[in-house]
Queue: 4 jobs
Job 1
Amino acid sequence: MGPLLEITKSEIPEIDFQDKFLKPIWEKVLHNEDLTLTDGVKILETEDFASVGIMADFITKNITGDKVYFVLNRHINPTNICVLSCKFCDFAKKPGDKDSYEMSIDQILDEMDDEIREVHIVGGHHPSWEFSHYVEMVKSIHEKYPKVQIKAFTASEIDYFYRRWKITPEESLSILKEAGLDSMPGGGAEVFSDRIHKMLLPGKATGDRWLDIHRIAHNMDIKSNCTLLYGHIETFEERVDHLIKLRNLQNETNGFLAFIPLEYQIGTTLLRKRHTTPFDDLKMIAASRLILNNIKYIKSYWVMIGESTASIGLNFGANDLDGTIGKERIAHAALADSPAGRAREKMVNSIKDAGRTPVERDALYNEIKVYV
Ligand code: V47
């Protein structure tokens, strides 16, 4: 899958570059050339924020016009018990820890309803849950909610099924697909750099393994997403190298639906003192759009960058707002409207506020409704 941009479709904007190093990058964009590591680093380093936004916005509008997508979904994390001890992770607990938890399949089913279109399931690498438990989970969801698409298990979890139970990714993915799995989330990628892996996530699937598992999934016709966890101890070079590796795999398989830049949340891990600024977050969205010229959807993930920055992100190259609905039972009890109804209204308003056309989608980006 090569670049998605079709120059003939759009009017080319005049850009008054304040940073002269961006001009040759714009020329490459207009000639549908892949940006290099050096180009990517220049985009992340520049102070000429406006020009970067205009370039990224040009690509996105060319690919999906004014449309911005969202999905009514539910994120479920069945357990936080994890054999790994990644230094950036605030979520994982050891068995017996005060805050550790395990959800039963019935509890998972209770978290869902018929109105959502996608369930996103990611959890800790549990020391003793057998693979059959995950299959049962997918099967039960599929049986009870046949209209909800199941996006479940990161490549890191699929790798763990092999390490723990000697079930290869080919086997586990084919059994899960048979049980009702529709697609895979993009988590677990973190930053592909070996340096970061050694420092922050020893024992977790390496970058090459993550890419191999997505390649296997794509070859089995399982679409997936991809992510980058940025804003901790990684360098700009490491960020861009990661994006280029994703672009290369997409050229080979065309199996990625969307890319999500995940801003590192400091929590109690304190890998750095402050969050990245909205300025950095928007440049990261724009750089992703410019470098990943072959991935159709770029998410502005409001859960991590906040609603205001996410809304501006829709003018910096993003064309998807994700859509996570939390469990809103208390508010729901007090109001007549359904949680899904209110989540939908919130998404539609945020997208309209950014001057774009909201489109409700399913997990595989089939359009459900355009809100004109
Ligand atoms: O893999 C862990 C990241 C990911 C932290 O595929 C952290 O549509 C920030 O992958 N600060 C899980 N991030 C989330 C994820 C995701 C989210 C939304 C949509 C999709 C999709 C995928 O969250 C993990 C890890 O990279 N993470 N700890 C942290 N402290």
Job 2
Amino acid sequence: MVATHAEGPATDRQGIPHYRMFIGGEWVDTDEQYDVINPATEELVATAAKGGTSHADAAVAAAKRAFESGEWRNTPPLERAAVIDRVIAALTSRMDEFTEIGSRECGFPLRLSQAICVGFPLLHMQHYADLTRRYEWERPGPVAGQVLSAGLVRREPLGVCVGIVPWNFPLVLTVWKAIPALAAGNSVVVKVDEKTPIAALEVAQMLRDAGVPDGTFNVITGDGETVGAHLVAHPDVRKVSFTGSTAVGREVMRNAADTIKQVTLELGGKGPNIVLEDADLDAAVDGAAYAFLLHAGQACESGTRLLLPSSLHDEFVRRLVERLKTLKIGNPLDPATDIGPVMGPDQHKRILGYIELGQQEGATLVHGGGVPSGPGFEKGYWVEPTVFTDVRNDMCIAREEIFGPVLSVLRYDSVDEAIEIANDTEYGLSAGVWSQDVPRALEVAKQLQAGSVWINDWHNISANLPFGGFKQSGNGRELGPDALDEFTEQKAVTVDLSGRVDRRAYGLVLGTPPSA
Ligand code: NAD
């Protein structure tokens, strides 16, 4: 799959690609290793060095040295954007390889892998490069009431920024953490998830080849509770951008508090998908399936609570189940596959546990619920697309993030009730409304507590729009027109042009000078 080379991320360890970490411009290995396992086949895809806290320290030290040298942060923004352009060209030339990495390492079906492991990273890097070119790095700001003063607001990099990335979208989320931080002139340490380290390490080589100075971009592996937590608490780290579960997000916020770090958190969700009575049913049925099944439901923004008006409920569920029967679950490398595996034994157990819990809670299982069997399913981690009806919003399957292909269907009798159910959650990442009356859908959208609301659509994450959560789905925004704000400090500079001492101000402290 991936070529191994002495001067790149992967070497050969017993005939398998072995990935090293990238620290201070060097490839760093360890004796201990992680196994990277294909979730569809349980085959060993690669091994990876297992980082510890000493590697986290080395990466932060290298990043700090690089930042203090000034080489990257003093590189003009236009040149930093040109470096991103070169990475875009490098990734474009290796599209097929990265599509396959996404399928083997993460279980993405090929079509989806092409879009999410290559297309999105390319589009988003392009957005960050464009933004870097037109960002207001410095702007004049008049000083209130003082004609003979000049003011200047500068946007300056923060220093060492840490990105902590989960396994579900490894390259997209590495791009969201690393590229705007680098574009703004920071140094970066990315901690990848041990299950999915490959794409970020390959991109480290691309960034180096594109001209990012050594130490400015580092990638380490390591367990979250030790290495991740160590990075978050590290006194030389100025910012942590974390994507993962809400439970770990709370811990990140606590651990960052002692050193008053800036923290961006992109956390879990329990997206309510409201179908209004006047929805186009064919579109809404497909949309409901798409909303909860992308990447076998392992997407934070999934639509996992489907809210149906009582009048449409039975017909809609019937159509949805018929549609789900047409989907092909199986080998992600088969271009005909629609739904791939879930990420590994822990995810598998967790999802099946929720399916059992849903039945115990009194929900009705109307589709799926099991593990597919037969040829092609002897190995790997598989869960059938699963639909529960008769779900109440106080059940665990309606409140907790399952992170698998499981949909909870709830009934409502008035639009106000639908909005109330939708907002009755501690999450607030995504929501959706289906209606042929767009102004009416917009009125509903305004009342939903979520960072992204899709009308007659789902998963429409656009580079030009901010993405992030309300409530316990997170803090801060990624992408969008303000993406670089998250990785810069504002500095206000004033210049007194009057050539005189300001007696009114100075006099407050110094009194009347003897000469006056
Ligand atoms: P997780 O929270 O267990 O782990 C995420 C990352 O954090 C991993 O790299 C892990 O090693 C690290 N980590 C674990 N404990 C840590 C600690 N104490 N300190 C610092 N780092 C630590 O999440 P996961 O199960 O790997 O990923 C799935 C979760 O991510 C889901 O809840 C999903 O909703 C969320 N997610 C959110 C978004 C978003 O943009 N909002 C996007 C994708 C995934």
Job 3
Amino acid sequence: MALSGLDIYKLLPKTNCKKCGSPTCLTFAMKLAMKKASLDQCPDVTEEAKKALDQAARPPIAAISIGSGDNEVVVGGETVLFRHEKTFYHQTAIALSVDDILPAADMDQRVKDIEEMSFERVGQHITIDMIAIVNKSGTSEKFIAALDKIIANSKKAIILASDDAKTIEEALKKCADRRPLIYAASGSNLKDMCRLSKDYKAPMAIKAKGLDELDKLSQEAMSLGAEGLVLDPLPETLNQALNDFTQIRRASLKKNYRPLGYPIISFINSDDKYRIVQDASVCIAKYAGLIVLDSLDKEVLLPIVTLRQNIYTDPQKPVTVEPKLYPFGAVDKNSPVMVTTNFSLTFYTVSPEIEASKMPAYLLVTDSEGMSVLTAWAAEKFTPEIIADTMKKLELENVVSHKKIIIPGYVSVLSGKLEDASGWNVMVGPKEASGIPKYLKEVWK
Ligand code: SF4
């Protein structure tokens, strides 16, 4: 659990010497607690205090790194139960599975499909994070053959899923430099898997039915020096998953219980597409660090990545687009100009409607610090002055010849003051983006 300012203060020299730039040790302690200062700014802190503070600074759920280079995936490292308390740091990683029993051509196609799987949403490019090779065959030959294909055709982070330590070791000899996740150590192979995790510096998942057994194995793995752990309590039902995952998160955050202070992994397999979306959604919301899916269907994956994107967008840093003038179609001096804010979701709701109108048009995007139209208006980030200022900066009068600007219908109240501030004729557009095509066709002149 994070230390309070007072807890930190007790560990400082308490001389108020000001060498750290703060007027007192207490002020410095408060800054440290808020992560607005770094301990090395105090030259007189003792080694003992450094150790205690360093231990306390570690997140209650360890951040585990899987993969390497640009394809590194970090999971865990969370410090709160609910996003509104602070923020979530590492979004749930999504892996797609490749069974080693697939015929060669099917396997090639599956790996290719996983590589090419991508989605565009609110201006973000979303791809699949990892590939999990599953040792369905029970033989190391097929597992290694599948691994060879994946190494040759993908740079994504890898999960090596086999219960056989010898098979895992053969695989690690080929790909340890890519820092794969070993899945999984269990009661029957713990010592061997821990040795591999330690020797090859590979993070390792532990699987066990129920939290008591998982807790016991985790403690053993920690004492055996496993590189970094991921937990799978093997829930049999979604209800059990929700219960187990929540208990793990609460034990690590509320009790600072280290053996359960690791990210959670969940394999989600079903023939029912709705079931996959349902289970994955629950796991992403509470509290899986990684999910492994077997479905490559876009209609299954899109809602899952969308939910993940919504949960893991930091509410304090909304997704934005660049404030500027965006042309749509073959615009000319007579094209209409609409204005909106730079909240990404707003932009990507409005722009397809402009495109759908088939009328070349401009969209002027102002800097509203990522707020939507009504929120920005209420927060005085979408005011007549800001809009007029943006029009001036972007020299709108040189872009079009008509001096008419269309504002969103919800902020019709801005029209008078915007006319005064800009000298332009203000037209009130539709309230909803879906009304844009009809508006441009019937009202714009
Ligand atoms: Fe206190 Fe250290 Fe800052 Fe001096 S440098 S005021 S001892 S925290």
Job 4
Amino acid sequence: MIVLGIESSCDETAAAVVDGGGVRSDVVSSQVDLHARWGGVVPEIASRAHLDRIGPVVRQALREAGIGLGSVEGVAVTCAPGLVGSLLVGVSYAKSLAFVRGLPLVGVHHLEGHLLAPFLSGGAPEFPFVALVVSGGHTALYRADGFGEYRTLGETRDDAAGEAFDKAAKLLGLPYPGGVVIDRLARGGDPAAVRFPRGMVGKGGLDFSFSGLKTALLQHVRTHGIPEGQGLADLCASYQEAIVDVLARKTLKAAERAGVGRIVLSGGVAANSRLRERMGRDGERHGLSVRLPEGRHCTDNAAMIAYAGRQRLVGGERHGLDLGVASTSSLERSIAPPPVA
Ligand code: KG4
Ligand code: ZN
């Protein structure tokens, strides 16, 4: 089954074509340039940009896959969670396409897309596995027993890991989005230069908290100012280390508790070089297999949505033209949200 996937939940307009053989095209139009001057995603600007870009992005995905619309056999679209105005652009577009062409339609949970991103290249991971999904909006640990069978093991009580990176970057006067900038600066820094708190790490549970870390950075900057050169690299490396340390320790603990020998990482923060290195090393040390998606499949893309949607379409799942969108939604239930009035 050839499936067209559409993703517009935040600030990337994306379309991809996936079939039984894998990813045939994967187009992402980033809006980073539009939001950078505001230091974060402005929902109204995002929806308007999605509206302008969705048509060209879908056409490019079909062209790069070497097919016409007539060859598409199903449409998958992110319907939750995300920015409502942004989600509506993708969902409305997908519905129109499905209606006009008489194609089956399925709404996909954005986090299911992230969770399945490691399936896009390098062979499918075996179930069961523990998944650490770390993005700008979400940070959670799941146990996956099969497609659509996900159980939450832990999640953040406040900020997401990506948010912790982005807020720190803003505080340090670094450009948006901050995660990748901190990652780059940290490469030349000493991760032990400043001791930042490891939120909830001693509590034994699998939930996360990153708001205390953000406050610790703010206090550090108030006392010492924003350093330059090596001092800035050390500060970034130390801050990053606090996030990575907590993510790695909790993920290992989750695998141990679940009695599962396989770990997969996904979401934008899974592109972080230090997290990848640390998880790889820890996995080896504990005899666990650790799968990391390619960097471009960690951040938002439509290939992961097409893949997750294709699993559901092949399994017979269909949504009607009353498919709605939702800003929040639990992955565990993983059902399409109710229609928006
Ligand atoms: O998955 P994603 O593209 O969008 C959401 O669903 O949120 O994740 C975006 C997040 C941002 O917070 C961004 O700063 C972070 O992922 N990110 C990184 C890196 N690349 C992206 N964080 C740390 N290191 C990176 N290399
Ligand atoms: Zn995402």
